[in-house]
Specification:
The chain has 275 residues and is an alpha+beta fold. The chain has two domains: 127 residues; 130 residues, Trafficking protein particle complex subunit 3 (Muramoyl-pentapeptide Carboxypeptidase, domain 2), CATH 3.30.1380.20. 41% of the residues lie in helices and 21% in strands. It is built from ten helices and ten strands. Strands 2-3-4-5-1-6 form a six-stranded antiparallel sheet. Strand 4 and strand 5 form a beta hairpin. The radius of gyration is 21 Å and the shape is globular. 33% of the residues are buried.
């Protein structure tokens, strides 16, 4: 299926359990070898004009291609896909020894609205959709939106809240799919993800039961900007806090104590666990 065809209708299901997609793809010959889309490991199957993806955190997405692009035709083809979905979910049960209620899951199928939720944006296969540029994005373009547009039209206070809460939500999604034996391993995985996505090069400066101090180099948000008498990396601050909070299952507050915006040449976040 060509990447440009994956722009019609998307339907969502949730198995409510994590899935070993590597084992699943090995055992089931109609599923593709696993690949990584952003933070998720994925296997997929193509049936006629319908692509079904199974994500390691248990999400299933059904991408329906229609000739007319009409919602009604998409709904009809999604209904036709129930046979394939029933087969996949049954095979998940048989292969991974899970006890997923197939009919209950199928009853929960729903279309994704045009206002994409955070996690839907994280499911997009940009490497296929943008074969030339892939996931690379201009830090300059991002900063225009971050520093100029949001504050200009919404005001500084609201812009900060939006950026932090958006980052926090994305961080919790990361925590929901990344498995680690302990906090040290989780923070290592967080570092690898932020490095791979070119968000920032982070390192843990110190950590104990109540606080974690994380240094951030080459921040997409702030590296190289002139001093503006305030910290500005609200998206990263929220993402790191949300990720740690999601992993620990505790409230985590975050303060940016060092920043290019404050005249520093790196950024630093102080996370307070239970704060």
């Amino acid at each position: 299926m060509m990447a440009e065809e994956l722009n019609k209708q998307t339907f969502a299901l949730d198995l409510m359990t994590k899935v070993d997609v590597e084992r699943l793809s090995e055992e089931l010959d109609y599923l593709s070898p696993p690949k990584r889309i952003n933070m998720f490991l994925v296997t997929e199957a193509l049936f006629d004009s319908t692509l079904i993806r199974v994500f390691e955190n248990g999400w299933i997405r059904v991408y329906v291609v229609t000739e007319s692009g009409s919602y009604g035709e998409a709904m009809f083809k999604a209904t036709e896909s129930l046979t394939h979905l029933r087969r996949i979910i049954s095979d998940v049960n048989n292969t991974l020894k899970t006890k997923i209620d197939v009919e209950k899951v199928l009853a929960g199928i729903k279309p994704i609205s045009e206002e994409l939720a955070m996690y839907e944006l994280l499911l997009l296969d940009l490497d296929s959709a943008r074969p030339k540029y892939k996931k690379d994005a201009s830090a300059t373009y991002f900063r225009i939106l971050h520093h100029s547009a949001l504050e200009k039209y919404l005001g500084a206070t609201t812009a900060v809240k939006i950026l932090y809460s958006t980052g926090e939500e994305a961080g919790r999604v990361f925590a929901s799919v990344y498995s680690a034996k302990d906090l040290k391993g989780f923070l290592k995985g967080l570092k690898e993800f932020m490095d791979r996505e070119k968000i920032a090069d982070i390192e843990v400066v110190s950590a104990d039961d109540s606080t974690i101090r994380i240094r951030s180099n080459e921040s997409m948000t702030s590296a190289g900007i002139p001093p503006v008498a305030r910290p500005v990396c609200h998206l990263e601050r929220g993402f790191i806090a949300g990720a740690v909070a999601g992993y620990l299952g505790k409230n985590v507050s975050s303060q940016e104590t060092r920043c290019w915006g404050l005249g520093d040449t790196f950024c630093e976040f102080l996370l307070t666990i239970g704060g």
